[in-house]
Amino acid sequence: MDRRFLRDLQKGTELMQPTFAKSISLPALLAITVSAVALAAPARAQDGVAADGDGGDIVVTARKARERLQDVPISVNALSGDQLRDRGAVDVKDVLRSVPGLSFSGTERGLGNYNIRGISTVASAPTVGIYLDDISLVTIATSFSGAFDPVFFDMERLEVLKGPQGTLYGGSSMGGAIKYVSARPKLNVIEGSVAAGIGTTAHGTASYNAEAVLNLPLVADKLSVRGGVFYRHDGGYVDNVAAGTVTNSRYSSTAPGYTPQAQPSLSTRNQANYNDADTYVGRLSLLWQPDESWSIRPAAFYQHYKLANPGQFFLGMPELTASYRIKQPTTDKAGIYSLAIDKELGAVQATSLTAYFDRKLDFVRDYSYFIGGLVPPLYPLTSRNLSASRTKTFSQELRLASNDPGARLTWIAGLYYSHQDDRLYQIAVTPGATPVIGTEVGYVGDTTTITKQYAAFGEATYKLLDNLDITAGVRLFQIKQIVDILGDGPFNGGLTQIVGRKSNEKGVNPKVGISYKVTRDNLIYASAAKGFRPGGPNRFQINPALCATDLARLGLTAAPNTFDSDNLWSYELGTKNQFGSSVLVNAALFYTDWKKIQQQINLSSCGFAFTGNAGSADVKGAELETRFNLTRAFQVGGTATYSDAKISTAALGTSAQDGDQVLAVPKWMLSGFASYSVEVADGWRGQIRGEYQYQSRSRRQFDRIQSVVFPGGVPGTAPNRAEFRQGYQVVNAFASVGDGETEVRLYLNNVFDVAPRLDTDLTGGSDRSTTIRPRTVGLEVRRRF
């Protein structure tokens, strides 16, 4: 039934395609054009449900069944392959400012955290699930590892699911889920595309990209292969200069007044635009259909990302400059290997998804200023930190689903198992430090975490009336963790070792919803769902003597060995409305009651951190998404999100206070766009588009004050300059012309070259921050065949 539905959809949508595109099916266009990637583009706006801007519906699998986006009775934003291509999106961070309620902390690929609708955290367990073709890419998040970010290459669409998705997607999706859906091989169709582009960034160097995709039938009606390769170079825009200045807010050069300490960097490195990066991607998949009831799809996706140096710049120096002493490369390699099998069994469809996710993230960082701040006699020496993370995850999902979407009762039920082996090895070395601290190895840590998950889940929808549905679902789960920790070195307070620290949690995630279709294109829905995230052991053994100052400020004598699970109930009332092909208006109100929030607590006096439970929070908000086709050629629209996410009851042992904003949640997110298309020649059509995006400021840390050492070694405090992230606004524009086979696109991102300070860090011995990519202009050419 699933394949028949797809064939019927394809026939219907082909009739709506412009003349120049009728030689290529709509699914083919989505599959080919999604791989168009522009150069370093910041976020671009979503313009509604239309896949091609003139009425083609996007079909999503948010509930693990194919449904028209406007029919899904939950809040989902989806961007088709065409939309991703038009916006020049490289990864999900390039569209997040235009997806209502989606925000991000951290700017480096592979080291950040996503949050949806105020469910934000910088703790080790993410609140947003990341999926590629229903394969979980969730890993442990620490200061040395974050969310894995696949680039948009040969993908059919992106889906962002709002609110707890614990029924179908598990505990890591208590805030929502981000789903990447890759293009599948097609039988009996030879098609492909090639593309190349070049661009330049203000204050930086050139960027360029190239790619190729080919879909090739091997056996008529039975077997097809699809593969592609992708390369991208992102030019740098931060300069490293010798003999710079290091500002360290943990020390004051004056007393009684507070003046952050400034001293020579002692760097001898001069390198312009040193934060350039290279990305290599390869993808291969097969589709084998022995007969129409079978679909067997093995697939492999490999991504290799190399960042020459991080994009942090020093405060107290000219903008976009730093003065590090050594190279600081980052390498993020990931392989995703899967086997998906679908079998139609009459009125039931069976699905098996077997997957293996292997990620290796290594980076070197300059710890000279951090260690020199802890032990001033070591400041003239150069310190190097190596962090190596390796995550290997095996997962197996089995599910059965009803096979008639028009039936009065539709349902899905399944079993899930995963085994994740995560290891973090870290070593900090300072050659020449032995006379001062007795060794050159200041710290070494080796932490291994084994996590096993077991779950049984189900969800059913029953039509009370032809236009009134009720949905109920539940997930039963058990999560077991075992952590082994070894730490040594003077900055660890000597040798510590913990073997077999365990946690074992069981839980139930229920969900209920109701939806009413006023017409085919007008839907009202309401839902209530529970989300859950497991607790577990803290992954660092913190010496209380080394961190006594910050622990005392929190009212603690020692950091906790474990942290508790947190959970929430979320309630949503929404409506989805499409009025012909001219107007789209989607809106939602939501409220979330969040208990025992997991948050990372930073101890700036010693450089360690632990996960604690920061109390409870209430999240109240509203979302609006609109699109107006004023004429067939002229569109305007935008999105708005309001999130009032506040701590309602602060817990002891954290620096949160009642009424504080939840970390990394902007109160306001706004976007708007205007687009105009016109036929410029026989068979050639042009388009111009402008976009505006805004985020208000958000809280980065609960601390109002930070620990400071005044002259003479006198301890004290000073205001925390990293308490908030700045609000900012961005304008982007692009123009394109194409005939359905050839397309040329010119883009201009961050038109006014804004440079907000985003992730300011005052704990590393050198005050530093990050920003978005400066103004970037580029040109890309694409050819389909």
TrEMBL record:
It is found in: Cell outer membrane. One of its GO terms (cellular component) is cell outer membrane. Residues 69-177 form the TonB-dependent receptor plug domain. Its main location: membrane. It is a multi-pass membrane protein. InterPro entries: Beta-barrel_TonB (IPR000531), Beta-barrel_TonB_sf (IPR036942), Plug_dom (IPR012910), TonB-dep_rcpt-like (IPR039426). One of its GO terms (biological process) is iron ion transport. Residues 246-751 form the TonB-dependent receptor-like beta-barrel domain. CDD domains: ligand_gated_channel. Residues 1-40 form the signal peptide. Pfam families: Plug, TonB_dep_Rec_b-barrel. Belongs to the TonB-dependent receptor family. This is TonB-dependent receptor, plug. It comes from Rhizorhabdus wittichii (strain DSM 6014 / CCUG 31198 / JCM 15750 / NBRC 105917 / EY 4224 / RW1).
